Amino acid sequence: MDDDRDIILYLGDPICYNTELYAKLEKEFIILRPSKKERERDEFIKALKEKRWCEFSAILRPFCDSGWEMGKWNTALIHLLPDRCSAFASAGSGNEGIDLKVMKMQGIEYYNGAAAASEATGDMAIFHIIPVFRNMQWSIEGALSIDPNRWKDAHRNAARTAYNPSGKALGIIGLGQVGSTIARKAFGCFGMKIYYHDIKRKRKNEEEALKVEFCERLEGMLEIVDCVVVATPVLPTPIITKATLWRFKKGSRLVNIAHGSSVDEEALVGALETGHLSAAGLDVQEKEPYVHPKLAVMRNVTLTSHTAEGTIDTEIAFETLAMENIRQHFLAPSDFQSLCQKYPMRH
Amino acid sequence: MDDDRDIILYLGDPICYNTELYAKLEKEFIILRPSKKERERDEFIKALKEKRWCEFSAILRPFCDSGWEMGKWNTALIHLLPDRCSAFASAGSGNEGIDLKVMKMQGIEYYNGAAAASEATGDMAIFHIIPVFRNMQWSIEGALSIDPNRWKDAHRNAARTAYNPSGKALGIIGLGQVGSTIARKAFGCFGMKIYYHDIKRKRKNEEEALKVEFCERLEGMLEIVDCVVVATPVLPTPIITKATLWRFKKGSRLVNIAHGSSVDEEALVGALETGHLSAAGLDVQEKEPYVHPKLAVMRNVTLTSHTAEGTIDTEIAFETLAMENIRQHFLAPSDFQSLCQKYPMRH
């Protein structure tokens, strides 16, 4: 066979927005696209064993809602990949369902899509930061009730315990792509004083550019900020527990746009009931799609249905970024600089 | 009488936050505070005729919810003011209830509190801009329903018609204190491209600082922007009517944080029902405290109970600004520069 182009294993539905770039990719690579049935775990494993897709060099999964039919990428799957395979570019902002350690040992670079989703997720954080300071849920309920007395109650009284985020202190747990975007937006919109805690400290020039201050100890940060935002990857155990909630400054607030499992909701309900926390805003919940019924009736709690990443712009950016990550990995295209500006890489 | 200090007629409840500045004011001026009963229109007019409060030089009204018992400041009231009276400093971001023309003819400078409320009102605009692009009301309702199927429906489908405000075009009608704050926040948070229409064009350097582009014709602006924000003072007739809605770009959005009377809601309902507009966010409603029942059940409409200005920080800033405006008017204090930075004057 004369064709020496690398082979890409394409998982999921066909590209639907950036078809121009896909046409380019089709010229640069040989793209093999398993059917939905072939992507089911048993069949997928069988096909890998049979080397049905030859010695492919990369895996491309440009959408969040298709291409994951084979389930968890653990040793059982990863060890069946061809030796030649060196890149896996996937939509989604996290690394869920991927054993990164095994992936790395196998010599495969995993590119996630965090950069594509950070704008939308950052906006969701801003959307929740406003109500936790402003009693917005009370104001919304007053209007939606179409009861003039409830409207008047909200109009008159919601303000009496409401504050401007402006000038207050924000604490971000996890300053990755999403956390950094939240910092930039919260400063640009409210001029908040921003602290962060992370297992890895940013470089000094990055901290200066983002106008953020590092807190080595999580507890130290919780004690001084007016609002905590959780923006971490999936963690093995909740980071917001009865013990950590106790360290929050009295009357402060919690926003979670990361993962429902990061917050012990029973403990959160308790902290809200005693008034130790004054409000919470949660895009994600612990037992999705089930919402804690006590949280749902609290007027100082704003809830959304895990839609932080969910925009058409994110979808477009996911597919573009996934394709460009593969191109950059193999071809290091000359437009790499402009790509980095648009979607900063995870490195 | 030896005391040659100017007299201030103080309308409303006692200062409750910035008592230190008030103590200063009490040394610099003689402050007379009519009782609530004396502030009722008939009694107030009688007292003015009797010159009960001597030849006062200024009127101070530091709160929105007290001090306006006498009703509209029209010719009937203004003509009774002492010749010596040259300043009226009031809370509230608008000039409602004040005949500014008559005030000016009488040689009285009217200072409103827009600078004190613009931060909170700007945040309310940001709070409504996110949902009109993002289908946030759908996401909220899914979670609040505590019905896992409605949650899943929102989680999966809200994204499919949702966009990031980032990079989209925003059109602001009225670029006063509040409009300018919205521009600054929308650029800082979303990097939106911002256009504005106003009866008065800003200076070139102001436009550059705010990164806004002037549209001489309102219709011209409506045709090109993805979201229109109304931030005008009270107008004699609605600015958003069936005729203007028709000029909106198809699928664009409306946010109103100014005055309910600025929008013809029946026409808005029509534009939403036909899909000509894709969403609306309204902090103010046409027939407050009554909410249009059709708007209340639309999933692409976000409503709040006219709480845009409503925060404790606004209250604090209202009273501080009202007092400082009086001080600056009479004393031109040396800390005027720092005051201007904190609360830019309306001039």
UniProtKB/TrEMBL annotation, chains A, B:
* Chain coiled-coil ranges: none
Entry superkingdom: Eukaryota
**Pfam families named in the record:** 2-Hacid_dh_C
Q: Which residues form the D-isomer specific 2-hydroxyacid dehydrogenase NAD-binding domain?
A: 149-308
Q: What would you give as a GO molecular function for this chain, any one?
A: hydroxypyruvate reductase [NAD(P)H] activity
Alphabetized, the UniProt keywords read: Oxidoreductase
Query: What's a single GO CC term here?
Result: cytosol
Write the protein's name.
Putative D-mandelate dehydrogenase
Annotated organism of origin: Aspergillus steynii IBT 23096
Q: What is the lineage of its organism?
A: Eukaryota, Fungi, Dikarya, Ascomycota, Pezizomycotina
